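thought: user wants a sequence for this fold. calling inverse folding tool.
action: design(structure=
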C-alpha cells in the first residue's frame, strides 16, 4: 500500500464516526487480479521444441487382462492426452487386477506416467517391483506433455466407449485428483495450482473453445461429472485485467512441472527398493524371459508396435519451450495458443488447425518454423499487456 492510499484510508476511517453509514455494496463477481508479469515471448528464447504422440484409443484406455504364455499381462495404456491426469486412478485399476493374481513379484513395462504410478502403487500394495523400459525420464514420450490437468483430453470417442466407461472414467479421475493433492506444497512444486486466462475479443460462451472443438471431433467430454473438483470460472469485465483483449475468463487448474515431478516419482520408487532395467521388447513373446509371472504393460504409444495394437492412433502435438521466468505463474489461451508458465519452461502450444490435423500423424520431427510462428503470436499478446 502506498502513502496516498494509506492516508486516504485513514481519513475515511476518521470520518466514519460522524457520517451516515453507507449501505454495504455487493461484492464484485470476480476476485481482484494480482499483478501479472508479461511473458518474454521471443524466438531466441526458445530453448527446445518437442513433439509428443498421444496414444489415443477410440474406446478409451486399455485396462484388460490377457495371458501371454505363462504370464498374466494387465494392460494400462491408451489415455490420449490424459495420461498424467488419470495416471493414479488408471494405475489403481491395473494394480488391483495385477495383485489379484496372488503374486508379490511384479514387472512393469514402461517408465512414463502410467509405468511409474503403477510401480509405486504396486509397492504400496506390498509387491516387489522391477520396471523394464527402453527409456526413462526425461527421454520418455510423456515427458513432452503439456503438463495441465486435462482428464478427458482425447480420452475416447463418444460413440465408441462401453456404457460403463463414463463411470469408470469418473472413478479414475477422482482417485488421481485426490492423489495429486498430496503433492501440493512439496519442495520444487512438482504439482501446483495456477490461474489460467482464456482471452478473446468476442463474448465467450459458457464452455471453453477447446471443449467445443472436442465435441466437433466427437471426442468424449466428461468434465461435467467432476466439475466440483475445481473452481468455477470467473468472467473478468473489460478494464479489470491487463490483457489487450476485451474479454478474459479466469479459472484455476492443476499444473504438473513434469521435469521435477518425474524425478520425484523415480526417486520415490527407487527409495522403496524398486529396480529399473533398460530393456527393449520387440514382441510380447519376449516377456517369457522375465522371472515375474505378472506384468503391467504401461508402454503408452509404444504398445502400438509392441502389441501390434492398431486401435492406438497417434495425435501429434508440438511444444515450443521458452526459458522459465520465475516471476510468471499463470497460463493463457489466446488465438488457439495454449501458453503455460511451468517451473521447467514456458509451454507454447498451437491448439488450432495444426493440432486437429495432428490426428493420426506419427511424425515426431519438430517443426522449428511452426514453433517460431506460434511464439510470434504470443509475442503480439504480451507486448500489448498493460
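)
observation: tool returned 386 residues.
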Amino acid at each position: 500500500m502506498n502513502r496516498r492510499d494509506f492516508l486516504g484510508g485513514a481519513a475515511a476511517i476518521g470520518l466514519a464516526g460522524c457520517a451516515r453509514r453507507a449501505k454495504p455494496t455487493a461484492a464484485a463477481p470476480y476476485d481482484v487480479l494480482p499483478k501479472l508479469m508479461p511473458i518474454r515471448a521471443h524466438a531466441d528464447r526458445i530453448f527446445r521444441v518437442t513433439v509428443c504422440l498421444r496414444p489415443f484409443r477410440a474406446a478409451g484406455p486399455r485396462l484388460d487382462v490377457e495371458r501371454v504364455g505363462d504370464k498374466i499381462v494387465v494392460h494400462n495404456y491408451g489415455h490420449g492426452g490424459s495420461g498424467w491426469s488419470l495416471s493414479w486412478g488408471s494405475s489403481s485399476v491395473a494394480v488391483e487386477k495385477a495383485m489379484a493374481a496372488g503374486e508379490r513379484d511384479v514387472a512393469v513395462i514402461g517408465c512414463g506416467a502410467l509405468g511409474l504410478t503403477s510401480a509405486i502403487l504396486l509397492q504400496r500394495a506390498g509387491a516387489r517391483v522391477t520396471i523394464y523400459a527402453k527409456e526413462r525420464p526425461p527421454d520418455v514420450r510423456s515427458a513432452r506433455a503439456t503438463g495441465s490437468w486435462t482428464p478427458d483430453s482425447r480420452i475416447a470417442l463418444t460413440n465408441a466407449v462401453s456404457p460403463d466407461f463414463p463411470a469408470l472414467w469418473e472413478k479414475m479421475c477422482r482417485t488421481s485428483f485426490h492423489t495429486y493433492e498430496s503433492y501440493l506444497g512439496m519442495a520444487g512444486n512438482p504439482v501446483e495450482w495456477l490461474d489460467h486466462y482464456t482471452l478473446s475479443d468476442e463474448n465467450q460462451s459458457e464452455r471453453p473453445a477447446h471443449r467445443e472443438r472436442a465435441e466437433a471431433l466427437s471426442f468424449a467430454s466428461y468434465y461435467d461429472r467432476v466439475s466440483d473438483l475445481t473452481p468455477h470460472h470467473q468472467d473478468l469485465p473489460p478494464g479489470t485485467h491487463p490483457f489487450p483483449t476485451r474479454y478474459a475468463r479466469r479459472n484455476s487448474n492443476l499444473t504438473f512441472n513434469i521435469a521435477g515431478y518425474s524425478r520425484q516419482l523415480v526417486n520415490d520408487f527407487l527409495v522403496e527398493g524398486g529396480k529399473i532395467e533398460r530393456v527393449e521388447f520387440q514382441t510380447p513373446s519376449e516377456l517369457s524371459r522375465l522371472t515375474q509371472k505378472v506384468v503391467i504393460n504401461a508402454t503408452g504409444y509404444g504398445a502400438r508396435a509392441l502389441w501390434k495394437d492398431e486401435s492406438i492412433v497417434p495425435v501429434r502435438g508440438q511444444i515450443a519451450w521458452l526459458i522459465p521466468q520465475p516471476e510468471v505463474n499463470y497460463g493463457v489461451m489466446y488465438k488457439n495458443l495454449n501458453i503455460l508458465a511451468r517451473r521447467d519452461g514456458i509451454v507454447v502450444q498451437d491448439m488450432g488447425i495444426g493440432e486437429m490435423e495432428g490426428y493420426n500423424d506419427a511424425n515426431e520431427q519438430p517443426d522449428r518454423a511452426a514453433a517460431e510462428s506460434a511464439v510470434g503470436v504470443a509475442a503480439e499478446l504480451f507486448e500489448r499487456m498493460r
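thought: summarizing for user.
answer: Here is the designed sequence. The radius of gyration is 23 Å.
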